[in-house]
Prior knowledge:
This protein is mostly beta strands and 219 residues long.
Amino acid sequence: MCGRFTLTHPPEQWPVSIDHNLLPGFTPRYNIAPSQHIAVLVNSGEGTQVRPMQWGFVPHWVHDDKPKMAPINARIETAAEKPMFRKAMAEHRCLVPASGFYEWQATGSNKQPWYIHPADEGVLLFGGVYSRWQHGGQVTDTVALLTTAARDNMTAIHDRMPVRVKPTHANAWLAGAPNEGDWQDASPMLTHRIGTRVNSPRNDDPSLITPPEPRHQTP
């Protein structure tokens, strides 16, 4: 799964061409957590937009103020068939820019947090789906990140990882084009152990991603 990530690169460093930026402003974030608002790229009639969305997907047919479920992830292998995500996969795909993400490795009775980020220090584009939730006279855009089976040096940490879309396929993904060819980004990722301060979303500062030991390409 993917339950926390970072975004420290400003929009001008993202590997996509943005036509409209609807964010109220940019602040580097080191511990983005579920239920918070995150930056999301969508394909609108006016081009590629950056919109703030609440992380936790609420289907368009739900109108409760407190929905029973708001999943933060969806499996890409089954999202197109599941009633909750089927319409969004067909019509409302999105991309979520990230500088890196966190995962927790089970080690006996404890869980060791790791930070995973691109080896070239670039920006990741997570594949996602979004929905417009209408409730109590309000409208909230909500989003879920897609996950896939872990690969390479992620397999020793967790069995799932975020779907990464190649920048060259970003427009096709947003337009809902068939996923033909090698569209998933498999560029190298670095991993290193970090401290447990990341466990609390209240902590949000650069020290969270500082390794207590030299970085490793493999766990």
